[in-house]
Amino acid sequence: MNEKGNDADTATTLGEHLASLRRAAQLTLRQVEDATEKEVSNAYLSQLENNKITKPSPNILYALANVYKSSYESLMEKAGYLTTGQARPATFAISDLTSEEEQALIAYLDFYRKQNKK
């Protein structure tokens, strides 16, 4: 980390952010390819870092988050899948919820938290 902070924190695009994370981890493109067991090729990662591909699949982001020991949610936000501060309760893991069910669970969680404030 330099005096100005981590480059990944100030990166404006997903590609710049990924490049900063890779440099901070001191990994080459090929090393990332190997670390993801070829789920992310070095050519694909290069295109990501150069903003030629701007919205990789969540699976790709998950693999990169694991290699870089970074927040998967942060990468999902940078890619535009999530909005900053968007509610991401435990329902994120339940794939067959309707949007109405999810909203009801979020409302209940909000109620529960308000009732249990100290």
TrEMBL record:
Organism, as annotated: Sinorhizobium americanum
Identification of the protein by name: HTH cro/C1-type domain-containing protein
Gene3D superfamilies: lambda repressor-like DNA-binding domains (1.10.260.40)
InterPro entries documented for this protein: Cro/C1-type_HTH (IPR001387), Lambda_DNA-bd_dom_sf (IPR010982)
Pfam family, any one: HTH_3
Residue ranges occupied by any HTH cro/C1-type domain in the UniProt entry: 18-75
GO MF annotation: an example: DNA binding
